[in-house]
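Q: Could you fold this chain for me?
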Amino acid sequence: MVETDKKTAVVAGVGITAAAAALLWASQKVEAKGPGGFDEAAMETLISILQHTENLDADTTTLINTLNQLAAAFGVGPLENPLDITAFTAYPPALITPVRLPYREVPWDKELVIKALHTNTGVILVAPSQAAARNINSSYWLIANEAIEYRIKNADHIWIGLHPALGFAGDGVVCTVEQGASR
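A: Sure. Below is the predicted structure, expressed as structure tokens.
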């Protein structure tokens, strides 16, 4: 029992001493030793964080450059957005005469947008060949103001025609795609 009382007295003494030290420390003014009011340990921590951030930036730049080199090895341009766009219209000349879209390269990971003109009164047929553009069962139908997008290498791989029963002369499409070399 005497042992327990001694332990209790020691613990109480340590607690009182710690509380007194904390009160003394809290009552003293802490002077800033570095810029921004930070002490030396805080400044070292901040500098370490900033140096780590610079390393992350350098690692990210290295990764992007490596990806661009890898993309170039596969024949793909830099992984950046193109600088410009192109837009054009196409009109089939007659009901049973599909027309091929003009030559326009479509950059990697971009889509050619084909939209039926809002003034169309009939149905446009979109297909991968002239024969398919004549066939209502092997083409995609577009009504006025409707659009479809394709990820292809070139717009001239697509043909448009007028539906034999629901197409009207003068109906057409407008197409757009990003263009131009990257910076």
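A (continued): The two ends are 84 Å apart (CA to CA).
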